[in-house]
Design a protein that fits this description.
The chain is mainly β and 463 residues long. It has two helices and 28 strands.
Length: 463
């Protein structure tokens, strides 16, 4: 995929360097009129300086415009937005200080890609002294939606972090709260909104974005965020001067709605081969629960997940790679329960979260002390109920509709399954419940019969 250069054109107050783009210092109504309008070709990927008047003075920020092209040089992803980051960090003397990280003039968007039905689109920008920000966007049958936002800030930047105790890049991963957007529709949010995680507050405003653009033309049909109302105008984002801590930042009021529960993950079918023979079979839905300031639930998408691993006589490993951002490994082993009886069991699970842009490790967790999912060698293990694997205090793996056989697969089919206790209890309780219901029905019929007989007998005696 190709994309052009990102460059800076300084704008003077009251004068716009490009036709169709509001001048710096223009009124909020003029800024709101930007909508999904596209600037002239010579002004694409333009960084527009905007002077924002804060309580303690002027703060300069930049609007980023990214126009990603496909192989035929047609627009496949368009985004224009403004953002700022409020960060709390530890200083050399042990105090915690607040700082503001703004976009600089030298912004690039290396690594941004169009995406398709099986690969997420990616908007990635790099700015300042080693800072970067990215969001991946996935596509379903009728909608597209932001999945995860990755912010990496570099405390070696002494301009922003003059006395940081810990030096080096810090990566924060957070789920995008924005709702799904219909395909061939541009998402617009003029009012500011924020996302908080791990001592950072990410603030966005004047957002215009469309992923998976059709026919190279950005749509005129809009989907507005909940913060935008018919009478609202773009709000000025808060500065560090009127914020006590990053975790308590308040912006323009938004409707208080309950968070939408995360749906169960899709079920994926995975297999490994040794030569031309299938040696490992697995069917499972996977969900990660990563504890941060707020729990982060990550559903593994089978459509973008690649299975790898190794089969053996006494150990077998299944490695799942979801779009080079989430790696999950399951290791099974064989144990002797008696002199002639062998069982397999889950021994180890490891989880690694990667920065989708550069492949660096955001976090990793491993637990090699499991003794779960055991079944006789030559059979399979099944558990339709949700199960939780505790990797460490911060990471859990949830499984749904699990059916797995890591050894002795024959004819590319699962062998007879040994069911987990939860499923066995369910299978045991269903007949009992049916029997109780039938018994209650019989008693009800018998009581009705007795009452009917008594009424008939009373009527006969009265005659």
């Amino acid at each position: 995929m190709t994309a052009g250069e990102v460059f800076v054109a300084p704008a003077r107050p009251g004068r716009s360097p490009c036709p169709g783009v509001p001048a710096t210092g223009s009124s909020s109504s003029a800024a709101a009129a930007m909508g999904p309008r596209r600037p002239a070709a010579s002004c694409r990927r333009l960084l527009l300086p905007l002077l924002l008047l804060g309580v303690s003075g002027f703060f300069q920020s930049y609007a980023v415009e990214v126009d990603i092209k496909d192989a035929s040089n047609a627009t496949c992803l368009y985004a224009n937005w403004m953002m700022r980051f409020l960060i709390t960090y530890e200083s050399n003397n042990g105090d915690y200080k607040n700082t503001t990280l703004n976009l600089s003039s030298n912004v690039t968007h290396n690594g941004s890609i169009c995406g398709n039905d099986t690969q997420a689109a990616l908007v990635a920008v790099q700015f300042g002294d080693g800072h970067s920000w990215s969001i991946n966007v996935t596509k379903n049958n009728e909608t597209y939606q932001g999945e995860f936002i990755t912010l990496t800030y570099n405390t070696n930047d002494t301009t922003v972090f003059p006395d940081a105790k810990k030096k080096g890049p810090v990566t924060v991963l957070v789920k995008d709260p924005s709702p799904p957007v219909q395909l061939n529709t541009v998402y617009v949010c003029h009012n500011s909104y924020s996302i908080e995680a791990d001592n950072t507050t990410q603030i966005f405003w004047n957002v215009t974005v469309q992923a998976f653009v059709q026919n190279g033309t950005v749509s005129k049909k809009e989907s507005r965020c909940s913060a935008d109302t018919p009478t609202s105008a773009p709000s000025v984002p808060p500065t560090i001067a009127n914020v006590t801590t990053a975790s308590t930042t308040t912006l323009s009021p938004t409707p208080t709605t309950a968070p939408k529960p995360v749906e169960n993950p899709d079920i994926g079918n995975y297999s490994l081969k040794s030569g031309n023979k299938t040696c490992f079979l697995a069917t499972v839905g996977l969900q990660l629960n990563v504890s941060q300031d707020k729990p982060l639930l990550i559903n593994i998408n089978p459509k973008t997940t690649i299975a790898d691993g190794a089969c053996g006589n006494t150990t077998a490993t299944l490695k799942l790679n979801d779009g080079n951002s989430t790696l999950i490994g399951f290791t099974f082993a064989v144990k002797n329960t008696s002199a002639s009886v062998q069982k397999f069991y889950l021994r180890e699970v490891n989880v690694t979260l990667l920065n989708r842009l550069n492949g660096s490790v955001i976090s990793s967790a491993d637990n090699s002390n499991f003794s779960k999912w055991d079944a006789f060698l030559g059979s399979s293990y099944m558990c339709r109920k949700e199960q939780t694997l505790q990797i460490n205090e911060d990471v859990q793996v949830h499984t749904f509709n699990l059916w797995i056989q890591p050894f002795l697969v024959e004819a590319n089919k699962f062998a007879t399954a040994e069911e987990c206790i939860a499923d066995s209890d369910l299978n045991f309780l269903i007949p009992i419940a049916v029997g109780v219901a039938l018994g209650f029905l019989i008693i009800l019929v018998f009581i009705s019969y007795i009452i009917g007989r008594r009424k008939s007998r009373t009527g006969y005696q009265s005659v």
